[in-house]
Amino acid sequence: KDPVTLGKTNFGLIGVRMAKTIGVHDGGGTIRNSEGAVNEPQVHERPACWVDYSGPITPQAIEGITLMDHPTNPGHPTVFHVRDDGWMGAALTFAGPRTIAPDQSLALRYGLWVHAGLPTPSDIEKQYAAFCQIGAP
Predict the structure, then answer these.
(1) Beta strand 30-33 with 61-69: parallel, antiparallel or unpaired?
(2) What are phi and psi of 115, to 5 degrees?
(3) C-alpha span between 124 and 113 (Å, rounded)
(4) How distant is the alpha carbon of residue 76 from its chain centre?
(5) Nearest 5°: CA angle at 37, between 33 and 40?
(6) Helices and strands in the chain: count of H runs, count of E runs
(7) pLDDT per residue over 2-50, tens digit each?
């Protein structure tokens, strides 16, 4: 058996494409992370425990998704690749390639919280804390 190398990229193994109406550019949405940064210039390619993308799904309703990086993941907190056009993803190999030896495995844990409304950072932190307590499968 040969080792497997995951090449360096700012994309990762999990990503979310938001509805166009939720995007910062097209719909007036907002990207926030656990470090208090807001929108692509501050959040893109920066490490965080979580990133939340929220915005209007209709003129009367705001909804969103929080993507959470588990503290047991390699390189936690991970770098997130986000774009104001509606993209967010965890970039596992942003810093460089990752090689997995034949006798090793790579287990990753990410959480998605799909929510109505615009949660406060405190609301997201509560969800993140609960996610961190979930035992390994």
Answers:
(1) unpaired
(2) -135, 155
(3) 9
(4) 12
(5) 90
(6) 3, 10
(7) 999 999 999 999 999 999 999 999 999 999 999 999 999 999 999 999 9
User: Residues 6 or more apart from 84 whose CB is under 8 A from it?
Assistant: 23, 24, 25, 31, 39, 40
DSSP class of residue 83 equals E
For the cut 90, the answer to whether the pLDDT of residue 136 exceeds it is: no
pTM of the model: 0.95
Residue carrying the six token digits 């501050």: 42
Q: Output the DSSP codes for 104-127.
A: ------EEEEEEES---HHHHHHH
Paired tokens of 79: 């770098």
CA pair distance 21, 60, nearest whole angstrom: 12
Give the pLDDT of residue 137. 72
Query: Average pLDDT for residues 85-114, to the nearest whole number?
Result: 97
